[in-house]
């Protein structure tokens, strides 16, 4: 155990006029006896999940932006997302994502206005045409970003499908039916599976093979009720039936790619919400007694993923949704991994934040950091992934933003050029993704002054990670308060290799700004996310 901190010099017994709580100095989750800096405790021996990746998707915008003639701007976007380089002062140039999501389009783009999807940006090309001919030059803009990610060191790539190609669907559209069922013609199941295998084989023979395939996305929604993008619903039985067909085909093709199942619309679809046959997915897919069990299908990755939308407030709900999913995962199969595979700021967030209009300030960055913290520490996810990596809309669900050359939101102009800007969503995600690398292990961390989990959602939060190979320690601290906060740091003898931490701070005015701080005292700036790195012995 690395003990970061020292005991307060005064006990409750020595302070007059203060009533002890059930935990001595702790009343309503707050240490009322503090007269100086509080304490952080890190237990390196108490290991939790092993981290696999942090990622984002190429959806919608990169098909145009990846074909811009201005390579400098494209490289700036790629650096923001993937770079592990730093400037001369040690400040990171990017957030070092370790997974990139590639959307396999269904062909709504080629249909144009006849697709029924009003927004051209939300239509996607398809590699396969109606005559069963493949054109691997399609999705060229997305392929540029695929290569840019690899060039900057990304090693994990995930291909995901949200709809079968339009020629295989029941309504000849890339948007789903107005009911719960999979928009796939019965006689085209094999053709759809063969299409996915062909896409994977093509990229495996190229320089950027896919590690993972996600064949379904948010099947709990009825995508045909108000078509705005590609997507289809699907019941658990329909998903299981298709996976039993797809897995053996992938194995027979000799693919190294594995199937990542889930992409549930929100956390409680993993452990509840099964009235229409589309919920309780942990039990449905990974309980061996279930009729929909697919844990033994070839090429299946041993994991299930969910999206963090609409389960983030108030604080008690932020915790309980994730705790219920984690409890169900442990009950069904403790060895099963959970992923959070899509998140962005959507809709009204308890009257405090909103997707519209676009807001890229620190309040929104702190909210993102808080969601990441709870997905990692309560749901114990091993991968955490964002939705729109590059956003062209007047909305808050992006990391990197594009405006038209005049600073507005003319989508037609943005197809060929635009202004590139960052966001606090980007940099607060970077407080995690840039430093918590694949293979790092989350270890227990606690604050002496904030012991109530719900209270912590509005005050301070901490998580910690170690790399057993390099002996690196990473601590991420969130300070939601408008006041600065101090913590004492006592590494306990020779357990830390040096006397300082490298500190990377994101605030309203800073983006992963590097500094150093003595291990004895850490000061968190108001409204900040701070990452500390050091080595241990």
Mind explaining what this structure looks like?
By secondary structure, this protein is of the alpha/beta class. It has 2 domains: 26-49 and 441-535, Immunoglobulin-like (Sandwich), CATH 2.60.40; 53-347 and 371-386, Alpha-Beta Barrel (TIM Barrel), CATH 3.20.20.80. 24% of the residues lie in helices and 25% in strands. It has helices spanning 62-65, 71-82, 108-111, 140-151, 189-205, 236-252, 268-271, 281-286, 315-332, 362-377, 411-414, 424-433, 453-456, and strands spanning 2-4, 26-27, 30-31, 38-50, 53-57, 99-104, 156-161, 212-214, 258-264, 300-307, 337-342, 348-349, 353-354, 383-391, 398-403, 419-421, 441-447, 460-467, 472-479, 485-488, 500-506, 513-518, 521-524, 528-535. The strands form 4 sheets. Strands 1, 4, 17, 18, 19, 20, 21, 22, 23 and 24 form a 10-stranded mixed beta sheet that branches. The N and C termini lie close together (11 Å). Residues 39-401 form the Endo-beta-1,6-galactanase-like domain. Keywords: Hydrolase.
Shape: globular
Proportion of residues in helical segments? 10-25%
Strand tally, please?
24
CATH fold-level name of the largest domain: TIM Barrel
CATH architecture label name of the largest domain: Alpha-Beta Barrel
- Average predicted local confidence, pLDDT: 93
The CATH homologous superfamily of the largest domain is called: Glycosidases
Number of helices: 13
- Describe the main β-sheet briefly: 10 strands, mixed
What percent of residues are in strands? 25-35%
Structural class, please?
Answer: alpha/beta
């Amino acid at each position: 155990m690395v003990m970061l901190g020292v005991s307060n010099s005064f006990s409750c017994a020595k302070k007059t006029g203060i009533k002890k709580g059930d935990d001595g100095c702790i009343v309503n989750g707050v240490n009322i006896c503090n007269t100086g800096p509080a304490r952080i405790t890190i237990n390196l021996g108490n290991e939790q999940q092993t981290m696999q990746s942090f990622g984002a998707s190429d959806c919608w915008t990169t098909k145009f932006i990846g074909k811009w003639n201005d390579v400098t701007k494209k490289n700036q976007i790629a650096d923001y997302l993937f770079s592990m380089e730093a400037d001369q002062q040690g400040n990171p140039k990017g957030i070092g994502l370790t997974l990139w999501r590639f959307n396999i389009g269904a062909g709504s783009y080629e249909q144009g206005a006849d697709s029924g999807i009003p927004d051209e940006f939300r239509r996607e090309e398809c590699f396969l045409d109606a005559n069963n001919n493949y054109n691997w030059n399609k999705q060229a803009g997305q392929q540029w970003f695929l290569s840019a990610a690899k060039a900057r060191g990304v090693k994990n790539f995930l291909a995901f499908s949200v709809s079968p190609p339009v020629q295989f669907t029941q309504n000849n559209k890339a948007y789903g039916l107005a009911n719960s069922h999979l928009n796939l013609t019965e006689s085209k199941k094999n053709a759809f599976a063969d299409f996915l295998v062909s896409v994977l084989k093509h990229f495996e023979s190229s320089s950027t093979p896919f590690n993972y395939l996600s064949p379904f996305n948010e099947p709990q929604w009825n995508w045909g009720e108000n078509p705005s993008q590609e997507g289809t619903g699907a019941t658990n039985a329909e998903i299981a039936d298709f996976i039993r067909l797809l897995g053996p085909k992938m194995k027979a093709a000799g693919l190294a790619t594995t199937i990542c199942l889930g992409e549930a619309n929100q956390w409680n679809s993993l452990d509840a919400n099964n009235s229409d046959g589309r919920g309780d997915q942990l039990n449905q897919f990974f309980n061996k007694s279930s009729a929909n069990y697919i844990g033994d299908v070839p090429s299946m990755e041993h994991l299930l993923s969910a999206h963090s939308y609409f389960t983030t407030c108030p604080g008690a709900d932020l915790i309980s949704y994730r705790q219920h999913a984690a409890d169900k995962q442990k009950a069904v199969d403790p060895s099963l991994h959970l992923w959070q595979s899509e998140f962005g700021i959507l809709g009204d967030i308890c009257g405090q934040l909103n997707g519209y209009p676009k807001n890229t300030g620190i309040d929104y960055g702190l909210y993102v950091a808080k969601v990441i913290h709870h997905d990692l520490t309560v749901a114990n996810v091993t991968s955490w992934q964002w939705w729109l990596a590059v956003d062209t809309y007047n909305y808050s669900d992006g990391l990197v933003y594009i405006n038209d050359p005049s600073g507005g939101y003319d989508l037609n102009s943005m197809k060929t050029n635009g202004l590139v800007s960052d966001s606090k969503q980007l940099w607060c995600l970077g407080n995690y993704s840039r430093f918590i690398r694949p293979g790092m292990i989350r270890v227990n961390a606690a604050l002496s002054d904030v012991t109530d989990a719900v209270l912590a959602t509005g005050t301070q939060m901490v998580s910690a990670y170690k790399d057993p190979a390099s002996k690196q320690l990473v601590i991420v601290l969130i300070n939601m308060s408008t006041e600065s906060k101090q913590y004492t740091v006592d590494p306990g003898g020779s357990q830390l290799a040096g006397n300082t931490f490298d500190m990377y701070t994101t605030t309203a005015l800073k983006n992963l700004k590097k500094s150093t701080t003595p291990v004895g005292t850490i000061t968190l700036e108001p409204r900040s996310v701070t990452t500390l790195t050091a080595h241990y012995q």
